[in-house]
């Protein structure tokens, strides 16, 4: 039977069989809408909801770790049903991801649920950064193997951003850095800005997340960008009007194009946005803007580099791979390269790689793992679980 690959993220789960070309992306939560109070929407069932205003989210992950097991089981039941990928986990092997530095109690709970509730035949557990590194090797045109890989993975996730260096194919544990900023914090900050300046959208996480994806970008020079209000011309270049959905004629919001009005546009509610467009993603570079006393991504990368063997620094800086949903902001790569260039030695080159699909990149790595020739040697089987429990998996 084909191996199941599940990149179990805090915001979305990417899941599919290792024989498939691409995964299914499923919201990893239960949602309740005001318009249909009797029904809870699980995963992609939210597409059936006519009015997604004031959506209430019940998340499986809290602060980046899987803690709500009832919610997670409900989502997994949906994923492995006919509406999901159409196959059960019974006696199958699964490749599944977990957060960096995961708590042992969470690992034990996951192991117990998969083997006891879903009756899997075996499992291979890794972090999203591990799978991204494996996929990076598979995509490499040079003759790089996992044993010779030197790279830095920047995983800009939903709850955290992780910087994970790999030297000779292994994670340098003492060099891993975590910043408590991710897509969730950016959406919440944008909600607050719009609510204080325009209209109350504190209950509209779903809509504000779409606004963030549609209008936000990273400013290459933040101080220069903040002078946008000093001239009318510059303000016009940045300012946009966002048409909010009314869920009757407009199902999803969009940026209003001056001079090209859509049908019935004058009667729709709009939100004017200006410096919010670049001040929200700026949190990835300056978390202190919202009172988080941590450094930004460039400083965290430079600090992680110092904890790695100096012989690997040149190759590490030439192979910086960026994955995760928030890596898709326009201008993110040039800004990160500029800031990082100022923090590392002048004689070392800096090269950033962002794949076309940073959200599903780790899943493709899981597929590469599952189809590798010696995959069976690394799986933790039902026999191993019954014989050794959690301790055998940690040794493996």
From TrEMBL:
One GO process term, biological-process aspect: transcription initiation-coupled chromatin remodeling
Kindly give the Pfam families that the UniProt entry links to this protein: Actin
The UniProt keyword set, sorted, is: Cytoplasm, Cytoskeleton, Nucleus
Would you say which domain of life the source belongs to? Eukaryota
Location in the cell reads: Cytoplasm, Cytoskeleton; Nucleus
**So where does this one cross the membrane?**
none
Q: What is its main location?
A: cytoplasm
| Annotated family | Belongs to the actin family. ARP6 subfamily.
**Protein name listed in UniProt:** Actin-related protein 6
């Amino acid at each position: 039977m084909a191996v199941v690959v599940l990149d179990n993220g805090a915001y979305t789960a990417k899941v599919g069989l290792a024989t498939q070309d691409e995964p299914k992306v499923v919201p990893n939560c239960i949602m309740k809408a005001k318009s249909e109070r009797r029904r809870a929407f699980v995963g992609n069932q939210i597409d059936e909801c006519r009015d997604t205003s004031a959506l209430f989210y019940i998340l499986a992950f809290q602060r980046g770790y899987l803690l709500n097991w009832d919610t997670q089981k409900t989502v997994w039941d949906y994923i492995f049903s006919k509406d999901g990928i159409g196959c059960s986990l019974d006696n199958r092997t699964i490749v599944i991801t977990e957060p960096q530095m995961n708590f042992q109690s969470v690992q034990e709970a996951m192991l117990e649920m998969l083997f006891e509730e879903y009756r899997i035949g075996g499992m291979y557990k890794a972090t999203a950064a591990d799978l991204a590194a494996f996929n990076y090797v598979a995509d490499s045109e040079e003759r790089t193997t996992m044993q010779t890989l030197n790279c830095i993975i920047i995983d800009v996730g939903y709850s955290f951003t992780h910087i994970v260096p790999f030297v000779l194919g292994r994670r340098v544990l003492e060099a891993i850095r975590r910043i408590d900023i991710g897509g969730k914090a950016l959406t919440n900050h944008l909600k607050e800005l719009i609510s204080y300046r325009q209209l109350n959208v504190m209950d509209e996480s779903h809509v504000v997340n779409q606004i963030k994806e549609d209008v936000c970008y990273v400013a290459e020079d933040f101080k220069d960008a903040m002078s946008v209000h000093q001239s009318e011309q510059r303000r016009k270049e940045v300012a946009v009007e966002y048409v909010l959905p009314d869920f009757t004629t407009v199902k999803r919001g969009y940026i209003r194009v001056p001079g090209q009005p859509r049908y019935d546009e004058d009667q729709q509610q709009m939100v004017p946005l200006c410096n919010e467009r670049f001040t929200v993603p700026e949190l990835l570079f300056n978390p202190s803007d919202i009172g988080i006393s941590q450094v930004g991504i460039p400083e965290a990368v430079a600090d992680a580099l110092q904890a790695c063997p100096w012989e690997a620094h040149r190759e590490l800086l030439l192979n910086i791979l960026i994955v995760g949903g928030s890596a898709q902001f326009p201008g993110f790569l040039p800004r990160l390269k500029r800031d990082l260039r100022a923090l590392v030695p002048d004689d070392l080159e800096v090269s950033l790689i962002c794949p076309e699909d940073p959200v599903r990149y780790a899943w493709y790595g899981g597929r590469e793992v599952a189809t590798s020739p010696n995959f069976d040697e690394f799986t933790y089987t039902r026999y191993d679980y019954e014989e050794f429990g959690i301790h055998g998996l940690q040794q493996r």
